[in-house]
Structures are given as structure tokens and as C-alpha cells.
Amino acid sequence: MSLRINHNTSALNAHRNLLVNDQMLTRSLEHLSSGLKINRASDGAASLIVSEQMRAQIAGIHQAIDNSEQAIGMIQTTESALTEVNNLLVKIRQLGVHAANEGANDKVMLEADQFEIDNALNTIDQITFNAQFGLKRMLDGSHGANGAANGKGLEFIAASPKTHSSPVNGYDVRVQSLGTQATLMGTQELTQEIIDKGEQLTIAEGGRTVQFNTHKGETVQQTVGRLKAEMAAIGLDMKLELVGGKLKLTHNQYGGDFTFQVASSTPGILSKETGVMENATPGRDIQGTIGGSVAVGKGQVLTGGAATPVEGLSVRYTGDVLTSADAGEGAQSAGRVAVYQHSLVFQVGGNAGQTVSVSLNSTNTRTLGRGVANASGFLSLRDVNVLDAQKAQDTTRIVEAAINDVTRTRAELGAFQKNTLESQMSQLRITEENVTSAESAIRDADMAEEIAEYTRNAILVQSSTAMLAQANHNSKSVLTLLE
User: What is the spatial distance between Cα 402 and Cα 93, in angstroms, rounded to a whole number?
Assistant: First the structure.
């Protein structure tokens, strides 16, 4: 056996193994103390990248859940204010129905009804102004898709969160065919002789029917007045006129969905044949385009088609850019409508672009109930008046439209909360749980495995230390040769 003292190879080998084992022991202690098996990139570069991406996603999902909960709070706050507006509208409608009871009301009673209606209208405007979530006013129209129309007879009705903001000069509205009402005019004059003989008229509309008989001795004007009264009492949504001695009936609503039937015992007074029910000339829905995109006509209202920039945009046209002579010669411009998109946008996902939006329409009394055809000329809820029977009837129509506006908004908010926010939040919680589990499998330490590894490394360090001491001791055997 050769003995060397300049280089103790055994000691160097033992020292190297001691350093390796000590490093492994230190790493095991780090894993056990942190609970992580990936503490730095050197522990696993690929695993670190995947883990950090998952951590970012988990943080985003957690914040999205908080965002959804905050959005639900905002929606509930808004819906509670709309509930009060709804209650006030129901009260106004009740007062309108009371005021329409012309036979029993006097001037003082009608003025009292009007005073209460005015008070309710002011309260609605006050709720509209005061309804806030933080510093955001929820019902003043500043968080919806709003618009303004420019053109004679052109009126902006509504827009949806899917409606794109218009160019600076607005969307061009072109009309191909005007909306019309169902109408019928007799071909035979209603004379005193026919009245005295005893004419029988039948008018049916919307499931309601008037059976009318003339009375001998009544004048034509008296007969027409009594027929009007019976039509109103039954609730026919129609207008009766005497044009050149002939009866003319016109439906109050526009479009192909509204029609009526008539019959008369004398041919030509209403129906062409004696006692045979005859359909009125049907109404027609408006046809046209908005911003060059397809639009769906309903009565006098054009609504932007699905998957177009003007989706959900509704405008009413009551003008007459077309006449019977030039109808069908191509769409003509009825004006322009500008749209300003300020719908509320909520970040409900952990990644960019995962947003939903909802539009909050104004509940101002000058906005509610717009676009309802009425004989009193009311343009909105703010204009309603019940000081005579006709105005009371029209007030009821306007308020019904306003109630529909508010309840539609409430329904949209309820569906948005239930089907969008709450469903999305439930899905986010499941996703957070699954992604967290996946990130844990990559990054977290298996404590049982790490303890076993720590024990092994500790024993190896102790063994390496002992062997290093032994290697150093072996070199001392050279001294025995000097004795």
C-alpha cells in the first residue's frame, strides 16, 4: 500500500459528498419550512412558469368573484328603486282609470286626481335623481345606451348594450314602406232613411264585439255619437269618423298585428254583403334600414337586426317621406339617429375581455311612456293630464307603456343578476377550486415525502462527516514510519 501526504484523495471524496449531502439537507429543510417544493426557478423552471401562471389566474378569478358580488349589490340597489317607481306608476294608472269614470266625476274630483298624479310624477323624478350606488346615479340614463333623433317624425325609442355607438353624424334611417293602420270605409252613405229603417252594425276587434242598432228618429250625428260611446264602453281600440256621410273605421295601433272585422245589414254601410263579417284592410309594418343594416319593422317602430352594429336600436317614424305615389321606389332618408353607448361593463372573469354589460334606462318622467299614439298629444309620462275623459283614457295608455318600460328594465336586471352574474360566480368558484388544486399539485410539497427525504439527507450528512474524519485520520499513519 502506498502512502501519500500531499493529496488526501479519500478526504477530498468524503468532503465532496459531504457538501452534496449538506446541500440536499438544506433544500429539504427549505421545503419543509415553506411547505413548497418549488421555491425558486432552480427547483423546476418549467414547473415554476406553469405555477406562476396559475397563481395569476387564481388571483384574477378571486377578484372576479368579488367584482360579481359588488355588481349584484349594484343591481339589487337599482332594482329596489325601480320597485318604488313601479308602485307609483300603478297608483297613477289607478287615478287615470278613476278619472275616466266621466259620469260620476266632477271638476273638483278631477283636479284632485291631477294633483295627486303631479305629486307622484315629481316623486318619480326625485327617485330617478337620488338613486345612487356610491357616486354613480343609476336611473338618470347616464349608464345606458342613449340616443337622439334628428328628422321630422323620427323619434329615438331605445337602444341595448349590444348597440354600437354611432358615428359623429349618427346612423342614417331609411324608410322603404310606412307603417299603416287597419282601416275600412263604407261605400254607402249612412242616411236618415237607413237609420229610421233600423240598421244593424257589428264591429269586432281584439276579442271584443259591439252589436249596434240604430233608433228611429235619431239624426246621423246622434247615431254616430252613440256608436262611438258604445265602442269606447266595450274598449275597442279604434276610431270612428263620418267622412262625406260614410262611416270610416281606423284602428288606433299601427302594423299588421292589429285588425278588426265589420258587418252591416245594409250592403256598403260597412260590409259589402248583408250580415257577412268582412275584414278591414290590414295595417302594414314599417320597412327600412338603420345605418345601412337590416332592421325589423313593427308598426311604426324599426329595430336593428341581430349581429349588426345597430342591434337593439329602436326608432319610431311617424312622418311621411313616402306617399302612395312613390312608395316602393326605394328607401328614402327619414333622418339620422345618434347613439351614445354608456352601458355598465362588469369584469366577471379572471382574464382580459371576460366582461358583461347591462344598460340602465332613465326613469325620468320625460323619458317613460314615449312613442305611444294618443289623441291628446301626450309625448311622454310627464305630459299626462286627466282633466277630461279623453285625456284620462290616454293617460292610462301612456302609464301602461311606462309600466312596461320599467318592468322590462326590472326583468332585464333580474335576468342579468340570476343568469349572468350569479351563474358566472358559481362557475368561477368551481374554477378557482380546480385551478388551485392543480397549482397545489405542481408547487406544494408532499410533507411525508419531504420528511423521509430530510431523514435520509440528515443521515447522509452525518455519515459523510464521519467518513471525512476517518479519511483525515488515515493520513496520520505516516507518522508511525518515523518512530
Answer: 10
Contact 246, 190 (CB under 8 A): yes
- Among 263, 278, 274, 272, smallest CA distance to 188 is for 272
What does 301-314 look like in DSSP terms, one character per residue?
Answer: EEEEPTTSTTTT-E
Domains of the chain: 182-279 (2.60.40)
pLDDT digits (tens, 9 = 90+) for 228-262: 999 988 889 999 999 999 999 999 999 999 999 99
Q: Which three cell numbers stand for residue 361?
A: 334606462
For residue 474, pLDDT beyond 80: no
**SS3 state of residue 93:** helix
Q: What is the dihedral of CA 129, 131, 133, 139, to 10 degrees?
A: -70
Q: Say if strands 136-137 and 314-317 run parallel, antiparallel, or are unpaired.
A: unpaired
444 vs 35: CA distance, rounded Å: 6
Residue with cell 479519500: 10
- DSSP assignment letter at 162: T
**Strand pairing of 171-177 and 287-290?**
antiparallel
* Residues ≥6 apart with Cβ < 8 Å to 46: none
Q: Which grid cell sits at 62?
A: 378571486
